[in-house]
Amino acid sequence: MCYEQSVDVATETSPPGDQARRRVWRDYTRTESWPPWLRRTFTLLSPVALALAGAWVALTIAGTTQTYVGPLAIDVAFRPTLSGESVIHLDPVGAVVLDTHSGPVTLDISVRQVDLDGLNGYVDNPSSLAGLDEEITAGMQDVLVDAALRAAVTALIGGTLAAALVLRSVRRTALAAGVAGAAVLGSYGLTALTYNPEAVREPAYTGPLAAAPQLIGNAEDIATNFDAYADQLAGFVANVAAVYDTTLNLETFQPGDDTIRVLHVSDLHLNPAAWDVIDAVADQYDVDAIVDSGDIVDQGTPLENSYVRPIAELDRPYVFVKGNHDSVATAAAVAAAPNAVVLDGEPAEVAGLRFLGAPDPRFTPDKSVRGVPDEVIREGTEEFADDAADLEPPPDVIVFHDPSHAELFDGIAPLVLSGHAHKRDTYVLDDGTRVMVQGSTGGAGLRGLRDEDPTPVNLSVLYFDPETKALVAWDDLTLGGLGQTSAEIDRHQAGEDDGAAQGPEDPSPAPDLDN
């Protein structure tokens, strides 16, 4: 009775058309009902398809090797693709793409993070930079071999497991394993045969790194000069000592014990040697404060924030204003140092002097947009100058990265400190305001490694009267750039250098903005 009722219910709830369609589908999916040619094709292709699909899924899920190479934490993966290439991800600043081979596999390398403690070790010991490139090169070779073996085993297991779970046939599973193995060997073999080592000479960049060739220069030239540069870093500090000894014997102005001494630096551009030079000069000249007029980094990315950590170890106030290469994150990283003072439109009393500064209104580390918003820098300078003119009491020193429109500060403060041009200059405006443009204390950073004529390392010690707060003299220190061991000092007194250094007709033309 129950059986008949259940049949009746099923019959009532399932329309005859649905039952017929289900029977047709069930009969169609039975391979026994297929034509012989279709059964043979399925028997042959299903292990191949499952092997390839399983290998792809396995590589996606478990094909990444995570390890450290020098101070870098990296992920290395081999991905099946239609066209082969090598991609180096440097998040968040972009990626470098190299057309290294034609095999159906892409080498994917991602820099996951930087070991800050390890990186600081290289910054603290610049001489160790000489072996860093060799360490990374050797480490990468070992990592690539390990990653290739891991990817091969992962693909083989994935393809075999997929076939075993779906086909449930020992023979066809073995066929799938063979297909997976052949695919791995074929991909690696084709990659090796088509490998082009010259591809590293023609990289393609994505993201903000698209500006890298223009901002930094030819990578091959930098690599050629890097070892010589690393060997020379320690010599900078010795040159500073020689320069200081010279100042003690000068017959011109001699600062007194109460003279306010300020070290002016600018445009460090990530050069690790700059910190040793700054520290040595600050100690030997016993400066009361350090003023940095911007461009302390190159791209303004969070990865660069660790570069500014030595500020906290300088043991004296560090007054900073943001340049066009520095981001808001860069300024925040500087501000995290307990001795740092980041100027942002409000006056700050440091070492007995009243400083006023404002960040560069642009953020243009990408050279492709450099120079376009000239009206932006003028409008930003005008706005800052209007605010500075209303300040009571007036500032002793204005700090602004780009001196293109420094004439707008004329008469507002007796001294303007700037950078940006990578070339030292000083001139006096019509109403008596002196503009001091500092060269690059970082020797233009990596840019200093690309040119036959290296960019010198520039910084200056300024002497202020403790009563009037007026600039009375300054020492311009110049250390030779890459491949040079020169150390020079020029002492100037304010009364002797009141002429317009850039010419009487136009004392303040805009410097080259290509920096």
Automatic annotation (TrEMBL):
Single annotated GO MF: UDP-2,3-diacylglucosamine hydrolase activity
Pfam families membership: Metallophos
Calcineurin-like phosphoesterase domain ranges (all copies): 260-423
TM stretches of this protein: 42-62, 147-167, 174-195
Cited InterPro entries: Calcineurin-like_PHP, Metallo-depent_PP-like, Metallophosphoesterase_sf
Gene3D superfamilies referenced in this protein's UniProt entry, alphabetically: 3.60.21.10
Name the record gives this protein: Predicted phosphohydrolase, MPP superfamily
